[in-house]
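TA notes, week 10

Several of you asked for a full example with nothing omitted. So below is the full record: structure tokens for the whole chain, then the designed sequence directly under it. When grading your own attempts, check the secondary structure regions first.
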């Protein structure tokens, strides 16, 4: 009986190994690779953020920029992405966090943005033009956890101070009919860059909601 139980567990172990290896930082790709970065202990990405870089399209300012560092892997379907972020923020608009990107006109970035000496939980949603929402943090935490959950045509953004209790700050649209680049983004639009540290990045597959609903009807 015990041997049978172990035999049933073996495929699950292989699946879990595949999920972990697919998220290995050393197998991810760069868009706008920074000049200085390293991977520590196979699980932590440290980068020196490229100065005078950002992601933004048109709204309010009239310019479009698409030149900040972004380390990513591509995922289809529905998923939950989480990361712990720690930044040595110095200049207004220094920022770091998660990015979900379909192309240069359709993307979401969410994390911390430093504005006038205050850390804010920030979300920018772009569908041809960008919008921006912020929630000021009462204190300046050393680190913050950011989570983005893609379900059907929506992404739910949440943050946590301890990695356990998450608070939702935004639900926004993102097309569910295509794969998405998911990964780690940082920018320093007005500054000379800063050190950004990303830990425990994970992307967990979620069963497709429409398929589950279809199966339930059969």
């Amino acid at each position: 009986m015990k041997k049978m139980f172990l035999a049933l567990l073996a495929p699950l172990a292989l699946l879990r190994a595949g999920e972990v290896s697919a998220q290995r930082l050393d197998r991810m790709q760069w868009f706008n690779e920074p000049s200085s970065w390293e991977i520590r202990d196979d699980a932590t990405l440290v980068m020196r953020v490229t100065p005078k870089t950002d992601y933004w399209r048109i709204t309010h300012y009239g310019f479009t920029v698409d030149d900040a560092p972004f380390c990513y892997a591509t995922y289809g379907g529905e998923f939950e992405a989480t990361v712990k972020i720690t930044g040595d923020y110095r200049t207004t608009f220094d920022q770091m966090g998660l990015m979900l990107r379909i192309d240069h006109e359709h993307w979401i970035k969410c994390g911390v943005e430093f504005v006038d000496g205050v850390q804010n939980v920030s979300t920018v949603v772009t569908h041809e033009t960008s919008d921006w929402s912020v929630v000021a943090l009462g204190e300046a935490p050393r680190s913050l956890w950011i989570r983005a959950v893609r379900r059907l045509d929506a992404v739910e953004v949440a943050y946590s101070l301890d990695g356990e209790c998450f608070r939702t700050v935004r639900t926004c649209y993102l097309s569910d009919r295509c794969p998405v680049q998911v990964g780690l983004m940082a920018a320093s639009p007005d500054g000379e860059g800063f050190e950004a540290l990303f830990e425990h990045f994970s992307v967990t597959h979620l069963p497709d909601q429409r398929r589950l609903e279809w199966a339930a009807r059969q």
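Residues 1-22 have pLDDT under 50 and may be disordered. Use that as a sanity check on your answer.
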